[in-house]
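User: Second chain of the day. Same drill as before.
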Amino acid sequence: MVQLHDLTFEPYIHDTDIREKVSGLAARINADYGNTELHIVSALTGSFMFTSDLVRHLHMPCYLHFIKVSSYHGSTQSTGSITLDAELKADLAGKHVLISEDIIDTGLTAGFLHEYLMKKQAASVKIAALLFKPNAYKGSLPVDYPGFSIPNDFVVGYGLDYKELGRNLKDIYKLKDS
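Assistant: Same format as last time:
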């Protein structure tokens, strides 16, 4: 069990399972892109661990970019509004882009990022996410590289937080009794 602020979380996904899943996602991305140059856009702050582990397994030339967006704003549920907290400076016109997300629940953030990157005239935009909540998903875009499909539980660890705590946990925990 882990106590973060006023909430208790219980073990959910072990780090060895996470490593295996990330390696498998990278293998699929390697197979799909071959030696094609790839621009990876990591949605901060939650995806930093996933992105770091993912890119270590990629074999093509990779450029790494970071964008800061938020939708939870300190809550255990998405607020439904996306805030762009740090603009992306890279010129992505004509480039192949992979969005690296920690978790996709409603799909609002992924949809926002996809539209944002297409406005930058990217040649293609695909999405990789460590966690995917199909029962909460309201988007229409495909999640091209989904990791774990999970129920609509609130989770922390491996980059994900509750009020900025828990990102450093190597395993993923879910809210107890959720």
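Strands lie at 2-4, 7-13, 38-44, 62-70, 83-86, 96-104, 124-132, 145-149, 155-156, 172-175.

User: Great, on to the next one.
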